[in-house]
Model the fold of this input.
Amino acid sequence: MNQIIGYLITGVGVAFLFLGALGVFRLPDVYNRLQAGTKCTTLGAFLSIIGVGIIEPAWFFKCLVIAVFILFTNPISAHALARASYKSGVKLWDKSVVDKCKEFEECTKVDPVREPFSNGVEGKK
Amino acid sequence: MILIIFFGIITVAVVLALIRALKGPTSPDRVVGVDIMVTITTAFMVLLALFFKRRIYLDVSLIYAVLSFIGVIAIARYLDRGL
Amino acid sequence: MKSGKVSRYIVTLIFLFILWVLLTTTLAWEELTTGFIFSAIIAIFGYNYFTKRGLSGITLKGIFYFLLYIPVFFWEMIKANFDVAYRVVHPKMPIKPGIVQIKTTLKSDIAKLILGNSITLTPGTLTIEIAEDNLLIHWINVKTKDIHGATDIIGKRFEKYLKVIFK
Done:
């Protein structure tokens, strides 16, 4: 019984992993790619690891540690990447409707002590 | 048997993320591609642990998740102010 | 709100010890003793960075709301995934991205961290920057550009729980 439930949960997780990768492949700019990438792969990895824990009950707690670790750290690394790419000057997609970030100097200022020696956009300057 | 099908789907997903990492067009795009690839690989290793019935693979997967997190944070810091 | 050294030390010790038990997944007494000793040593160096609140902030109501928060969060996360999956699979990709600003009334750093992470994992939103009490959010399908409207749609459903947990 718990074999069936476990394989079902793992299957849903694997499907979400695939959709996340497809989103990273298809969407137009880095922020949209991060959206699809973090959400789908976080839930996908979480579900497939928990599913393995259900199939093999002896491994459940170890799987739980890995899954919770991914659940906590993935949004943080997505946030760090989004912030870094905004600061390094990656433009939003052409069809974006609004950009409130321009009004805040936290988003655009760089550390005055250490000048950035490479802006993220290739071929600029 | 069903695990083999899962492995096939995951392989396609990794290839899609890898194409994004190779295509760019900007450096953050490549980092996103690699980050997604690493998260998928972490789940893949847990499934491999189930396939081979080897518990030690779970530890490998945990360490892989920790290292990818630290790596992405370091790259993000490099992109916004140059290490 | 800094609480005493002893209570902060105890929180760190308990957290590290639970982590050890989960990682080794055994209850043999040798393992438990080794884990306790190493947790005690690491907690001496780490408690100062690990927590500022210690045991003082924990109330029964806070724990109850935290348990209530987990299913709410998971439900939002599953909805988010179906939403994003629909946008990705749809051949025309119905997206309308933009960066909006919302306000938060939360004060402590850890509460803002959890709010930001929850927003990142829920429907079509990604936290880009936190500046004082403003959060800048990339929204995959912008419904309103107004600050108050966006706050109501994005932030409200988590804030009412987090306000009680970290007051």
In short: The helical segments of chain A are 2-26, 30-55, 60-87, 105-108. Confidence is low (pLDDT under 50) at residues 112-125 of chain A. Residues 2-108 of chain A form one domain. DSSP finds four helices and no strands in chain A.
